[in-house]
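Sequence design from tokenized structure. All designs in this work follow the same two-part layout: the structure record, then the generated sequence. An example of the structure record is given first.
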């Protein structure tokens, strides 16, 4: 199975493709309607030179958008924009920690939206994590120095395209 790098369009495209072919996962999210975005803070040693945002938008369980977003798109389209350092997102996606707990403890913070609103969608977080972890995922802390340098260049290029 191919590996997909964290925070790349290829990863998110594969998540969408796999979600549409997974009726069990769709069933778990059939009541979810939310435009949720996730800011991954900068960590240059991981190739993330500037924060980057990705999103999962659902309408009654239908995945309507899963992509990287510009700042402007995130602010215009997101009901919630959550924020955390890359290590926290990795822990969540490796299922070593839970969104609701991390949010309650302030390890994941909120930039856009209400805390009460986030708590109403938190019960679906496990299933959203399942959507994001269907592909075999490679994180920056698993990359060798050559992969990390290529990853950094790719993220910088993607961010430039998003912001233009």
């Amino acid at each position: 199975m191919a590996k997909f790098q964290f925070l790349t369009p290829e990863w998110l495209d594969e998540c969408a493709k796999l979600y549409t072919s997974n009726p069990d996962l769709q069933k778990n999210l059939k009541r979810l309607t939310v435009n949720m975005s996730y800011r991954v803070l900068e960590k240059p040693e991981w190739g993330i030179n500037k924060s980057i945002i990705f999103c999962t938008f659902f309408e009654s369980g239908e995945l309507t958008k899963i992509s990287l977003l510009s700042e402007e798109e995130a602010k215009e389209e997101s009901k919630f924009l959550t924020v955390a350092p890359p290590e926290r997102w990795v822990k969540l996606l490796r299922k070593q920690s839970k969104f609701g707990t991390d949010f309650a403890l302030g390890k994941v913070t909120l930039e856009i939206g209400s805390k009460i609103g986030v708590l109403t969608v938190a019960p679906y977080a496990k299933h959203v994590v399942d959507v994001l972890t269907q592909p075999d995922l490679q994180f920056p802390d698993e990359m060798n120095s050559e992969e990390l340098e290529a990853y950094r260049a790719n993220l910088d290029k993607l961010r430039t395209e998003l912001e233009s």
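The chain has one domain: 3-163. We note this feature because it recurs in several other targets discussed in the main text.
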